[in-house]
């Protein structure tokens, strides 16, 4: 299993709306590095849901339910989407400030590649985020 992080502005599509929807397709990604990451996602992979711009914090865990397919928001076959479902809201959110302050997370893509909307997360980083959030 692999781990990932996806970003969404809460005013555009936040965690609460995601939970209400029970599932969504992650579309509209128009960055080549993010597309590579979407194509690498496998069914069952776990995903950190990050509120960007407002809040700037990891708020929940999602799971990939369908691997990449043609992005339904465009006719351009270069772009793909995946399906996600919410798993759980984190006990405690983990802020970008907390992540940047933790020396163990200095190589995390969220720190190094801040603008990338779909990012890989290592197993070690995942475990640290779970620790910071109060999850087991």
- Give the overall shape, derived from the CA principal axes: globular
DSSP strand tally = 6
Determine the mean pLDDT.
97
Low-confidence stretches: none
Would you kindly provide a brief summary of this structure?
Helices cover 30% and strands 36% of the residues.
How would you characterize the overall build of this protein?
The structure is a single chain. With about 140 residues, the protein is an alpha+beta fold. The model has no long low-confidence stretch (mean pLDDT about 95). The protein is built from six helices and six strands. It has a six-stranded mixed sheet with strand order 2-5-4-3-1-6.
Characteristic key phrases:
136 residues, alpha+beta, six-stranded mixed β-sheet, 6 helices, 6 strands, globular
Task: Set down the secondary structure blueprint.
Blueprint: E1 3-8, H1 10-13, H2 15-21, E2 24-26, H3 32-40, E3 46-51, E4 57-70, E5 80-95, H4 96-101, H5 109-112, E6 118-121, H6 123-133
Parallel strand pairs: 1-3
Antiparallel strand pairs: 1-6, 2-5, 3-4, 4-5
């Amino acid at each position: 299993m692999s781990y990932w992080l996806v970003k969404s502005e809460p005013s555009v599509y936040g965690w609460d709306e995601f939970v209400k929807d029970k599932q969504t397709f992650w579309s509209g990604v128009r960055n080549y590095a993010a597309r590579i990451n979407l194509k690498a996602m496998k069914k069952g992979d776990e995903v950190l849901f990050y509120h960007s711009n407002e809040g700037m914090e990891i708020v929940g865990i999602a799971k990939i339910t369908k691997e990449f397919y043609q992005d339904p928001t465009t006719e351009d076959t270069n772009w793909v989407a995946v399906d996600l479902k919410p798993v759980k809201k984190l006990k405690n959110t983990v802020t970008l400030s907390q992540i940047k302050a933790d020396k163990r997370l200095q190589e995390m893509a969220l720190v190094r590649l801040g603008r990338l909307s779909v990012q890989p997360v290592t197993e070690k980083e995942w475990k640290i985020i779970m620790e910071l959030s109060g999850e087991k």
